[in-house]
Amino acid sequence: MARLSWMSGLIPSRRSRKRHVVRVLRAQGLYGPRFRDVLPAFAGVVAAVCAVAAVLAAGYRAAGIVVPVAGVAFLALVVTAAIRHGRPGARRRIGYYTADELLELDTQGLALAVARMLRRDGWRVRLMPAPDRPRLCARDTAGRRIDVAFRPVAEPLPDEDTPHPHSHRGDQESPLRLVVHRGVFTARDIRWARREETIHLLDGSALRQWAAGARLNDLLSPGR
Fold this sequence. Notes:
Blueprint: H1 2-27, H2 35-63, H3 66-86, H4 88-93, H5 99-104, H6 107-120, E1 124-128, E2 135-139, E3 145-150, E4 176-180, H7 187-195, E5 199-202, H8 204-212, H9 216-219
Parallel strand pairs: 3-4, 4-5
Antiparallel strand pairs: 1-2, 2-3
C-alpha cells in the first residue's frame, strides 16, 4: 500500500511539471497553436472542400465528366501559382517584401526593392547604382517622372546634385522627387520637404505599407 501511495504522489508531480513546461513554451511562442486556435481555419477548409465537391458534382450531373476534369485542372493551376507566389524569392522579385526583409537590406538592396515596387505599380524604372547614394529614375504610362533618393537625412548635401541636373526637352513640369527612409524623418526634414512642392518623404511606416502591396499613389495622396 505504501508503494501505491508513493506512485500516486509521483504522477501528479510529473503532470504539473509538464503543464508548467507547456505554459512556458506557449508564452515563448515555441509550443505551437492549440486546437481551439486552429479550429476556425480547419472548419473553413472543410467548408471550402465540401463546397468545391458539391459544385463539381453538380457540374458532372449537368454536363458530364468535362466539368470535374476542368475544375480539378483549374484548382491545380491556382494552387501551383499560389505556392510559387508565396516563395520568398518569387514574392520579392515581383515587389513584395516583409518588414523583416526590409530591415535586412543594405542601401543597394533597398534601392533594388523600391525599383521592384515601382515596376509592380506600373512604372518603367532605371537604377543608377552608387556606392553610397544609389538613385532611381522612373516614368509611368502617363509620362510622369519620379526621382528616388535613399538617405537618412532628407536635406541635400552641398555636393549632391539632383538625379536629373539637366532639363529634358519637352518637359516643362519638374519631376517628383521621393526620399525613402526606413526610419522616421525629423522635423527639420519635414520642413525642408514642405518648402519644395515636388518633394515627398516616404518613411519606414509608409515603406512597409508599400512593400506589403499598397500603391505608391495612395501613399503620396494629399490626405495622408
